[in-house]
Amino acid sequence: MPPSTWGGPESNSDETYPVNLLAHLLKQMMLQFGAQGACVALHDERIGQMRVQAHVRFKNARVLAHLSLSPLPPGQMPNMASNTRRLTANLEAGEQDIMQMSPILSDLTLPSIPSSIRARPAEPAPDEIESVDPHQCELFAVGSAYPIGHDLIGYTWHKNEAYAMRHEDYVTLFRTNHIQPLKIDILPSNYLVVPIRESTLADEMRGHPHSSNVLGVILLYHVSPNAPSFKAQRNEALNYVERIALYLQNDKLHRIRLRTSEYLQLLQDISTAFPSSVQLSELVGRIHQFVTRVVDVSSVLLTFYDRDLNRLYDVLAINNGKQVEGLAERPMVRLKSERPVWCHITQKEQRSLLFSPAQEHEKRLEYKELLTGLWGNQMDTESFLLLPMKMFNRVIGSLCLTSMRPNAFQPDEIQVLETMIQIVTVSIENANLYERDRSILSEARQREAQLAAINSALQSISSVLNVTELLNNLVESVAAVVKVDLCAFFEPSTSNDNLFVHALYAPSSVSMTDDGSGMPILVPQKKDKPDEIISQIQIPFKGTLLEQEMDEGFFYLDSAQLEELALSSNDAGTIFLRETGIERMLMIPMSYQTEFMGFLAVPTPRGNHSFRPKDIGTLLAICAQAASAIRNAQLFEQREETNDELERMNTLKDEFLVTASHELRTPLTAIRGYSSQLQRQSSRANPQQIMRFATKIAVAAQQLSDLVGSMTEAAQMGPVDQKIDLRIEPVQVFAAAEIAVSMLTLNSERTIVPDVSSDIWVSGDAAKLRQVLTNLLENASKYSYPDTPIHLSATSLHLSEVEPLLTPDQVDHALILDKGDISVVVVRVQDRGEGILPGDQLKIFEKFVRATRSLTTPVRGSGLGLYICRRYVEAMGGKLWLEHSIANEGSMFSFYLPQVAPPVDAVE
Ligand code: ADP
C-alpha cells in the first residue's frame, strides 16, 4: 500500500466472517425452527454496532407469503401511540410474550404482486435458500448496522434475551418514528430474535464465571400470516445459538491464528532488516507498513529522541492518511524543552498511553501537546495510543497512533505493536553502534592519511637546504594537508616595514606574472629561486595589526582586515588580497627562538569560517618544524655565501698579487736599474745624465707611492656597503674641472676640450670630485690614441632622463620613488681609443681589475681607480658608469651628482 493511502477503507476486523459459513448456519437454524427467512448481525468493533452480515430465505418464501396476503383497506389506521406505550411497558417489565397485540399497519411498503405468483399454490423446497438482495428488501438488509438498543436487533443485544414478536408489534415498537418507508418484497409475519452469547466455556477459561458478552444477533422469521408464534421456541433457540457462537468463535480463533502468524512473519522481516539496512526512510517505511497491517489507524507520528543533544526528531508523520513528505531525510527537530508532556511520559514514566481523545475530555486537555503538532490535530479522534521505544532503562523515541474508530487498539494488537517497536528499537541501537564503529574506523583512516600527509610535509621541508625550495615545499604541503588551493609564506623586508611573498602555492602550481599589460597572469612556478613576480607581492607590516599580532600563536584576518591591508599594499599585494577570492585568512607567525621569520598565510576554504582545531594543531606543528628547518637552510646558505665570498676574495687576492706584483715590480725594476746605473756611472756621469737617472727614479718612486696610496685608500674604504664620510657641500663643477685639467696638462701634452658652464653646481665633496675627474681624465689619456682630444662636459638633466643611459647594474628604480625626479648634473669624459671589450665593461669597476688588453700594454695601472671613483660618487649621492665604449672609437665614462643652486655669494 503506498504511504499516502494510509488508513484507507480496508478493514481487518475480526467480524468479517465468511458469508458461506453464516448462510449455512442460518439455513440449519431455519430448518430447525421452521422459519422461512433469517439474518445474522455481528458486532463490528470498528463502529461499535451490530452489522447485518447475511440475510437468507428459502426460495419458496415469496410464494408462501403471497398466498394469504390481504392489505388493510385505507382509512383503518390503528391507534399506534397507545399500542406503543403498552408494548414498551410490557417489554420493560420483562414480559416476552408480545405476540397477542392487535394488528397494525406497517410502514413498510409492498410491491404489487405478480398475478402468476398469486395464482400459483406454494411448493415449498425447504433446502434451497437464496440471499436477500438489499435493493429488493431493505428490512434487515445486509450491511445495515444497529447501535445498542436500536431497532429489534439493537434491543436484543441490549437485553441479551430471546424474543418472539409479531411483525405488527415490531412496527409499533421500533418503526413508528420512521418517516421514510423501507422497500420490502416479502412481509414477515412474526420474528424470533436471539442473542449470540459468547460461549460460557470461553468465559470460564478466562476465569470469569459468566459474562453477557453478545457476539451478535440472529433473527428468524415466518412469512405466512398463519404461521405459529415462535414463543415456545425461545429457549431452544438460545441453546441452539450457543453452538453457532462456538462455530463463530472457533472461526475467529482460526483467523486470529492466521493473523498472528502473519504478524510473526512481518516481525521477522523487520528484525532481519537491521542492521544491514540502516536507512531511516526504509525503517520508517517498514514501521508504517506494519502498523497498517495490524490496526486501523488514521494518523501516525514516529519520534526519535537524542539524549546527547536533548533533541527530538519527528521522522514520520501521517495526518489523516496523508504523509508529510521528506521527513525521513529532513526530520522536524524540536528541543526537549518544547515537549515537556512527551518527555514526562516517555522519559520519566516510561509507559504507554491509551485513551480516547473524543470521549475523555480531561485527558484530551492534559495530553493536548501529544495530540497536536506535525501530524495535525488529533483532538477529536476516537482512539489514541502512545508506545515508548524502550531500550533497557531509556526511551529513544515513541510511536503515536490515532484512529477514528472507538477502541481501535485492542490489547492483542497493542502487544504485537509493542513487540514490533521493541525490535525496531534494538535494531536502531545496533545500527547506531555499527554506525559508530564505522565512523570511528573512517576517522582513524582519515587521521592515518593526514598523518602520512604531515609526514611527507615534514620530510619535504626537513630534507631541503635551499630556503626558497624549502618554503615552496612548505606552502605546497600545507595546502595538501588542510586541503586548500592557496597558501603563501610572507617574509619581512630588510627594513621590516613590509612583508613580501617568498613562496606561494596557487592553483595548479602556477604563479602570478606580468605579461607587460600591467595585469598579472599565471605561469608555472619555479622551485628553487624566489619568483621575481611573486616576490613583488607586498603588504604592509610595520604599524599594522600583523605586527601587533605577531606574538600570537595564530590569528585570522577577516575580509575587513584584508581590505584594510589591501589599501596600503603595493599593486601586486592588492591584487593578491582582493582578486584571489580570499574570504578569511589564517596567519601563523613563524619564528626561530626569538627571531621572527615571517607568516604562513592560509586562506580558509570557501564557505568555511575557520579551520578545525586539529588542523590548526597540525599546521602549528609543521610550522614549528619548518622554522628550524628554515633556520638551518638559512645558515647553510649563509655559509655557502661566505664560502663563495671567500673564494671570490681568494681569486681577487690572486689577481691582486698578479697585478700588484706586476705594477710594483715595474717601478721597482726602474728604480733598481737606474740607481745601479747611477752607482756604476756616478764617477763618469755628467750632471745631465745624473739628472735623467734621478728623474727616472723619482717617477718610478712616484708610481710606487701612487700605487701604495691607492691601495691604502681602497683598503680604508672598507667593504662596499660601508658608508664613507665626506664633506658634502655645494661644489662648482667648473672649478673642479679646471683644476683636474690643469693637473693632467701639467704632465702631458693632451688636448682637453672642456664644455662646462660655470653656473653648474652639485652637492658633493670638492676634493673627491676633483679626484674623480682627475682619475677619469688620466684614464682617458692613458688608454686612448695619442694626440686625440679628450672631451669633458657637464649637463643638467632630470633623474628620469638619466636612468635610460645607465648600465643595467646601476639602475635603481627606488631612487626616483625616494627622492623624486630631481635635477642632476651628468659629467662625461670621452676619449678616442681602442675601447673596452664587452666582457670587461662591468668588471673594470671592481677592485684590482684591469681590462684584459691593459695587462699586455706598458701602460701602468692598479685597477683601483674606477673602484675608488665609483665609491666616492655613490657616497656623494650619484652614479658612475661606462656610458658607452666602441672598439677603436673610444669610451665615454659618465657620472652624475645631485644638482644644487649656486650659492648666492658665488653668483655675485
Ligand atoms: P688603472 O687605470 O689604474 O688600471 P682603473 O680602475 O682606473 O685602474 O681602470 C681599470 C681598467 O679599466 C684599466 O686598467 C683599463 O684597462 C680600463 N680603462 C679604464 N679607463 C679606460 C679608458 N678610458 N679606455 C680604455 N680602457 C680603460
Structure, explained:
With 908 residues, the protein is α+β, with helices and mostly antiparallel strands. It has 25 helices and 29 strands. Strands 1, 2, 3, 4, 5, 6 and 7 form a 7-stranded antiparallel beta sheet that branches. Helix 8 (234-272) runs antiparallel to helix 9, helix 8 (234-272) runs parallel beside helix 13 (411-462) and helix 21 (766-782) packs antiparallel against helix 24 (865-875). The longest helix has 69 residues, at 613-681. Mean pLDDT is 82; it is low at 1-15, 68-122 and 508-526. The structure holds adenosine-5'-diphosphate (ADP). Adenosine-5'-diphosphate is lined by residues 779-780, 783, 831, 833, 836, 844, 850-851, 854, 861-867, 891. Residues 779-780, 783, 831, 833, 836, 844, 850-851, 854, 861-867, 891 line the site of adenosine-5'-diphosphate (ADP).
